[in-house]
Amino acid sequence: MSKDFIPDPDAEFDVWFQAYQLYAVANAVALGLIPAEALDIQTTKINWSLAFSNAIATKNAYQAAQEVKDEKREAAETVIRKYTKKIQGRPETTDAQREGLGITVPDRQPTPTDPNLILQEPPPLVLVDTSQRLQVTIHFGKIPGDERRNAKPEFVLGAEIYYHLGAAPADVTQYQLLALDTSSPHVQIFGGLVAVTVTYRLRWLDKLGRPGPFGDPVTVTISA
């Protein structure tokens, strides 16, 4: 099938129709067109051009109106947030007033955490730094090697850190609770003049105090 000779895009069609109309009118007799037919082509072209130019003007006006609208919306949100911050900061502001304004009302009754979440959450990964003499820095979380991106899960309170002096024991009851730390890293200081071998294992605790599974033990030696 041959390609249609009439261009599809409006802008291309407008240029093409202009040339078509000029040639047809100028050569009407040679093309076998009577005056009424040549006039019909010319009138149709005028009507099309008016409609096309009006459409472009409307589109440009719409785009300009959209830009003004977006600008005014941004200015409005800035003012709203400015005064909402002031209102929210007043101790006298009541929840009824907040509801009247349609702004955030503090949650006075936090939704209980799903007890299964902590059981499904993988235990914290552990990275132990022993570069400092008689000191251990325990980085824990999803990305312990990068504390800037190492946020704990939202429903988690912190990590329980257990330790055992020596290699990993066969009896897990020999671990002792070192700390419950809500943010990584945790630092443990050792005294004495001899090297110490320590094994750590950690688990998450949710905000209602329910524990998750333990991670693998990590054994390190601290230099004296």
Describe this structure in words.
The chain is α+β, with helices and mostly antiparallel strands. The chain folds into 2 domains: 1-109, no CATH class; 115-222, Immunoglobulin-like (Sandwich), CATH 2.60.40. The chain has helices at residues 10-26, 35-89, 95-101, 115-120; strands at residues 125-129, 135-141, 156-165, 176-181, 186-189, 196-206, 218-222. It has a 4-stranded antiparallel sheet with strand order 4-3-6-7, with no helix packed on it. Strands 1-2-5 form a 3-stranded antiparallel sheet, with no helix packed on it. Strand 1 (125-129) and strand 2 form a beta hairpin. It is elongated. The protein starts with 9 loop residues before the first helix and ends with a strand.
| Relative helix content | 25-40%
Looking across the biggest beta sheet, what order are the strands in? 4-3-6-7
Secondary-structure element series: HHHHEEEEEEE
Helix count from the secondary structure assignment: 4
Number of DSSP-assigned strands:
7
The chain-level structural class is: alpha+beta
The fraction of residues in strands falls at 15-25%
Report low-confidence residues grouped into runs of 5 or more. none
Q: Mean pLDDT score, rounded?
A: 92
Count of individual domains: 2
Termini separation (Å)?
88 Å
Radius of gyration: 38 Å
The largest sheet, given as strand count, sense and whether it forms a barrel, is: 4 strands, antiparallel
Global shape = elongated
Briefly, what is this?
With 224 residues, the chain is α+β, with helices and mostly antiparallel strands.
